[in-house]
Amino acid sequence: MNLNFTPEEEAFRQEVRAFLAAKLPAELVQKTKTGVRLGKEDYKTWQRLLYEQGWVSPKWPTQYGGTGWTAIQIHIFDEECFAAGAPRILPFGIGLVGPVIINFGNDEQKATYLDDIRSGEVLWCQGFSEPGSGSDLASLKTRAVLDGDKWVVNGQKTWTTAAHWADWMFTLVRTDPDVKQQEGISFLLIDMKSPGVEVRPIITIDGEHMVNEVFLDNVEVPAENLVGELNKGWDYAKFLLANERTGIAGIGQSKAEFRTLKEIARHERKNGKPLIEDPLFQSRLAKLEIDLMALEITNMRMLVEEQKAGKPGPMSSILKIRGTEIQQQLSELSMDAVGVYANPWIEAALEANWNGEPVGPEYAPARTPYYLFRRKASIYGGSNEIQKNVLSKAVLGL
Amino acid sequence: MDFDYSEEQTLFSDSLRKLLEDTYSDTERRKVLDQDDSFHSEALWQAYAELGLLGLTFPEEMGGFGGSAIDMMVAEIEFGRFLSLEPYLASVILGGGALRLGGSAEQQSRLLEPMIAGELKLACALGEPQSRYDAFDVETKAEKSGSGYVLSGRKAVALGADCADRLIVSARSAGGVADKQGLSLFIVDAKAAGVSINPYRLSDGRGAAEVTLENVAVDAADLVGEAENAWPLIDHVVDLGTAALCAEAIGAMEKANDLTLEYLKTRQQFGRPIGKFQVLQHRMVDMTIEKEQAESLALLACMDADKTDPAVRNRAVSAAKVEVGTAARFISEAAVQMHGGIGVTDEYVLGEYVKRLAVVQATFGDVDHHLQRFGALTAAA
């Protein structure tokens, strides 16, 4: 048992730092540090840089562009990227559909999609949830009917993050309505430029447009866009969701946000002293940091297990639950920290290159929107209650 | 980074578990709990000595086996699982730890060798009635007398002082009552003139005592470490003991969770096992998460318990004690609640785990104490 990083791991950390110092654009760092909203091109720029470095898809098998890093190296990489102020990589391509194509797709699909997923040249979105199918995902109704050499798809997807940016959408569609729900679902790839695809924005309570409704009206999809076997989509979805759970923990990002929170708490005053010295605030800050330290080690314990087993186990639901709880607490405490300046709603201040007269400290305008933004963390990727059902059944045997 | 036990640790953990399974059933432990003359099993203590457990954490030149604080953790997790009543924490980790870290070669050979052989027990008497969890808050006086010292004062809830042959006592010869300067540590014979010991059991059945010192004469040879500068040593010893307690709590929480899960699967109400009810399932999941998170930091605390940089060590140990304390309270209360009436009966074993976890909570600082210490380190960093 040893929790220290090896000299090789420390050397790797330096290598990552050197890369970030040389390549991460200052403009992106400025945006992430102040909470300015990122656009499609911001995500694409960063992904392209990682792609060129060969570091964009560390977890993939090496023959498809993985780095062959250990679980600990992946953790270090993640931590350093966020510490330097890099944006996240949108998960839909590299984290979600990529591994499904690698594991269940055919050679032609691999040749068609994988490299564009890595480069970020083609952006993806996830067509899973429907208006009537949230936690009960397997009840989904979007129908795909084979007509000669094409599928005809009708239905509606919702909560589709980045659908307005995406070139492609991977979907779960019902291909057999007459069998048990889980046994009549298939995994289909849809070109967002296809006639009959309509994207409508959903504005969330933080004021941002990131999620969408996607309407599918007699959309024609080539038969070869089916991934894996017909009616086996639910198995692929479970595989994908397990990968999604471990990705959501977001330790590196939370550590970076904690540092920002500490800076805010040093800057804010209470009774003439820095807020960080206030016993009540300090106690909340301490508990949050301790929970995050614990999750970081729990995460590494599970990553090491995951790498040994070759896939994430059901315990990874713990990472999703605790990771999102911590993200939400960070956003709460950051909002509480700015006091009365949490109240002004200056949306324009969240856009890049805003030149208006500042209201309150530079970090203040993003705090309440961010708090509101984070509410969804315990809902998406399988709500935290669903994660507890998973743990209860698969780990505890209840 | 590596989270597995080494081959030696696995072997050793297995043999300790086997020993405890064979000799320390719930029934056997109950017999020890009913003893009046001694608060632990001396036969088991001797078995620990034979197994080499008492020398585990000492370097070979002190007669030990060269183990680390991680080895200490491996042992303490088993003690927690089996609710061991023996003064391992008191004698080996605290008393022995003070001499290992701060004692002279002469003191080590005089006391550690017989301690490791099971012939002599040690205990630390650091806290006082007014000091709550601050080990630097010391009123006990040490006055120079010839080449030695004379000690007077009172020590509170000293773990293992009920059966110790020698006490390691903190006393002040300079500074105000809550100063970290001016403290010294002394070896005191429990039978020396002027020492009175009022022994009792803690709520979890372990032995402790109030210790009164009235003009107790000690030799210069019994000063441990540097005179009037014992705080770094005291702080380290208490951190070591706290890390050990955290490991013990992991074993105890694991068992409390196992008992509860088993009960959820067997207890029938409304025509089905109560574990079919989602409200109980989710609470059981929460108990599991709490224990995993606490375990992660208990590992960190034991990794860092022997670090000499107090900032690094204090931080890891306080983080662990906060997470363990929070988890222990949640698990104790949820376990009793989900057992229903049986959970509050003295006959059923769950209550013993609840009591053990309550003692862990109020030993070496509760959640508030460690949140404060951790918070101050964070604010300063």
Notable features of this structure?
heterodimer; A: 398 residues; alpha+beta; 10 strands; 46% helix; B: 381 residues; 4-stranded antiparallel β-sheet
Descriptive report:
The complex is a heterodimer of chains A (398) and B (381). In chain A, helix 1 (7-23) runs parallel beside helix 4 (71-83), helix 8 (251-267) packs parallel to helix 10 (316-337) and helix 10 packs antiparallel against helix 12 (384-394). In chain A, a hairpin with a 2-residue loop joins strand 9 and strand 10. Chain A starts with 6 loop residues before the first helix and ends with a helix. Chain A contains twelve helices and ten strands. The mean pLDDT of chain A is 94. Chain A is of the alpha+beta class and 398 residues long. In chain A, 46% of the residues lie in helices and 15% in strands. In chain A, 44% of the residues are buried. A four-stranded mixed beta sheet of chain A has the order 1-4-5-8. A four-stranded antiparallel beta sheet of chain A has the order 2-3-7-6, with no helix packed on it. Chain B has 381 residues and is of the alpha+beta class. Helix content of chain B is 51%, strand content 16%. Chain B has helices spanning 7-23, 26-34, 42-51, 69-82, 88-102, 105-116, 231-266, 278-304, 310-339, 350-361, 367-380, and strands at residues 122-125, 141-145, 148-159, 166-172, 183-189, 195-201, 207-218, 223-224, 268-269, 272-273. In chain B, helix 4 packs across helix 7 (231-266). Chain B is globular. Classes of the chains: A alpha+beta (398), B alpha+beta (381). Chain A binds chain B through residues 1-6, 9, 72, 262, 274, 276-277, 279, 282-283, 285-287, 289-291, 293-298, 300-301, 304, 315, 318, 321-322, 385, 388-389, 391-392, 395-398, and chain B through 1-6, 9, 70, 261, 264-265, 275-276, 278, 281-282, 284-286, 288-289, 292-294, 296-297, 299-300, 303, 319, 322-323, 368, 371-372, 374-376, 378-379.
